[in-house]
Amino acid sequence: MVTAYNYPQALHLDLAGIDVCLVGDSLGMVELGYETTQPVTMDEMLHHCKAVARGAQHPLLVGDMPFGSYEINPELALANAFRFIKEGHMDCVKLEGGQERAETVKKIVSGGVAVMGHIGLTPQAISVLGGFRAQGRTAAKARVLVDDALALQDAGAFALVIECVPPAVADAVTEALEIPTIGIGAGPGTTGQVLVFHDMLGMCTHPHHAAFTPKFCKQFSDLGAEIRRGLEDFKSKVETDAFPSLEYSPYKMRKDEEAAFKALLEKDEPQRMLQRQDTSTRIQTADEYETLNLYGVGHVPDEGTAPS
After folding, report:
1. Which residues contact residue 59 at a Cβ distance below 8 angstroms, ignoring those fewer than 6 apart?
2. Sign of the CA dihedral 142, 146, 152, 158?
3. How many CA atoms lie within 13 A of 117 on its CB side?
4. How many CB atoms within 10 Å of residue 27?
5. Contact by Cβ (8 Å): 121, 173
6. pLDDT tens sequence across 168-198
7. 118, 169, 180, 199: which could join 161 in a potential S-S bond, CB 3.0 to 4.6 Å?
8. Which residue of the set 87, 96, 103, 163 is catalytic?
9. At what angle do helices 102-110 and 139-155 cross, to 10 degrees?
10. Residue 52: phi, psi to the nearest 5?
């Protein structure tokens, strides 16, 4: 399973034969620039789901229910799950939480929408967890995670994401369940694995995003460096007039049409020069505040000194 958030990313997943595509609420951080996933709205999720659905034909499409869309009551959760299917064109939904979400999962499944569960580190609950921290690191907490997994399975979940737990815990959960598990930072013993598109392909290499690249993520490519190199090369070639060359200027005029065009330009050149001069004078007059430095930019005269 790999995340995707837009049409071209979905196309790449499709061409690579990825089995499951998660339209994750992590889009809030890697696509929208939020600090966490909590601000992401239903409308934002549905916008991205629709784009992904246009590009990914092969994978199972999973819509990530955002914070606040399913916690209030099972009825609201079902209504929002319907939106993911009907408006977002997803195949199923994913929601976070353990035993406390069992009734919600049961309600959504009974309404005809398949549900993928999510236990361990649940990013939407970071205000309760105290940040992005690994879970299940004590015997008691690990045992609760096994119970959470069983409760979600009994409620009708068809699969379960296990995030940021010790491998022994993920192994125990996977062994206890009949449904498949999908790990992320949970070791090699789960049924499948999921990574965020941007993390695994090294797309976000500038300092802001690099600080948030998870330790568990193997970088399978370095697209960020290639993207930066391409942009810098473009900038340099434009500034030095190396681009576009005639090779990339394919649209031509017939010789007779080009000669006629030059004749037309020569005929009214004096009028165009006068018009250009008038425009330049008008712009300078309108911009007199900047010319006189009356916006306080640069040197500020001493108090009581009139500006020159």
Report:
1. 13, 14, 18, 19, 20, 21
2. positive
3. 34
4. 27
5. no
6. 999 999 999 999 999 999 999 999 999 999 9
7. 118
8. 163
9. 20
10. -65, -40
The third-level CATH classification (topology) of the domain covering 2-220 is TIM Barrel (3.20.20)
pTM: 0.80
Token pair of 69, please?
A: 């869309």
Q: Which residue's structure tokens are 């690579």?
A: 16
Confidence of residue 208 (pLDDT cuts 50, 70, 90): very low
Distance CA 29, CA 36 (A): 6
Distance from C-alpha of 136 to C-alpha of 36, rounded to nearest angstrom: 22
109-152 pLDDT, tens digit per residue, is: 999 999 999 999 887 876 555 555 667 679 999 999 999 999 99
Q: Are strands 115-120 and 92-94 parallel, antiparallel or unpaired?
A: parallel
DSSP string, 117-153: EEEES-GGGHHHHTSS-----SHHHHHHHHHHHHHHH
- Write down the domain spans for the chain: 2-220, 260-294
DSSP conformational letter for 71:
S
| Residue whose structure tokens are 């941007």 | 198
* Residue 163 annotated in active site: yes
One-character DSSP codes across 232-287: HHHHHHHHTT-SS-GGG------HHHHHHHHHHHHHTHHHHHHHHHHHHHHHHHHT
- The DSSP H or E segment spanning 163 is strand 159-163
Cis peptide leading into residue 123 (ω within 30°): no
